[in-house]
Amino acid sequence: MSAFPLTRRAALGILALSPAVAVRSALAQPNVRFRNIVVDVSPLRASMGDPTAAWVQQELPGALAQALAGYMAPGDRYGATLVARIDDLYLGPSSGGTGPWGAAQDTINGTLLVKGPHGGMAAGAPIRAITWYHPMAVDQPMRVESNHWRVVALAQAFAGWAPRELGL
């Protein structure tokens, strides 16, 4: 007879928690190496369209590569692939907002997915990054250009959270 009787309810509880533990342990691997970074903006493109989605797709891979430079190994065939799926992006009002000194809040939401070398999903981590936009008079006639720089700032903020959220 077992000294530790395991009930069916306890076993189901352990099984329910094991994916969360597996995701955390997969994220916290100190020896993880990324061979590739892929940015998926299809949810963003469906909701906001271009040029916003194109700007994110253009800027985010470089920002992520810079933030994760110590974990990049482009030639490693056993390296993981980092997929950044961007679900939503919000640019606050160009005329200013309720933030500090009249700043508007810009937000980007997405998920970092780590795919193993054979394509299997190893882990995922949601990220929400926020930046502040301080309107200037010159931004009004050049609204498209100022929005581009706001998206660049959001991509850099998103990438800046990546190492922490991946447990690196």
Main β sheet profile: 4 strands, mixed
SS-based class = alpha+beta
- Named CATH topology: Double Stranded RNA Binding Domain
Strand order of the largest sheet: 1-2-3-4
Summed up, the domain count is 1
- Please identify the oligomeric state: single chain
Beta-strand segment tally: 4
Instruction: Identify the overall geometry.
Output: elongated
What radius of gyration results from the CA coordinates?
Answer: 20 Å
SSE order? HEHHEEEH
Mean pLDDT: 79
What portion of the residues fall into strands of 2 or more residues?
A: 25-35%
Distance between the termini: 44 Å
- How many helices? The count is 4
Give the proportion of residues in helices: 25-40%
The CATH first-level class comes to Alpha Beta
Q: Architecture in CATH? A: 2-Layer Sandwich
- Enumerate the spans where pLDDT stays under 50 for 5 or more consecutive residues: 15-26
Summarize the structure.
The chain has 168 residues and is of the alpha+beta class. The protein contains four helices and four strands.
Give the SSE layout.
Layout: H1 8-27, E1 34-40, H2 42-47, H3 52-67, E2 80-90, E3 104-115, E4 121-133, H4 143-165
Parallel strand pairs: 1-2
Antiparallel strand pairs: 2-3, 3-4
Task: Give a written overview of the molecule.
With 168 residues, the protein is α+β, with helices and mostly antiparallel strands. The protein is built from 4 helices and 4 strands, in the order αβααβββα. It has one domain: Double Stranded RNA Binding Domain, CATH 3.30.160. Helix 3 runs parallel beside helix 4. Strands 1-2-3-4 form a 4-stranded mixed beta sheet. A hairpin with a 5-residue loop joins strand 3 and strand 4. About 7% of the residues have low confidence. The chain is 39% helix and 26% strand. The chain is elongated and about 50 Å long. The protein starts with 7 loop residues before the first helix and ends with a helix.
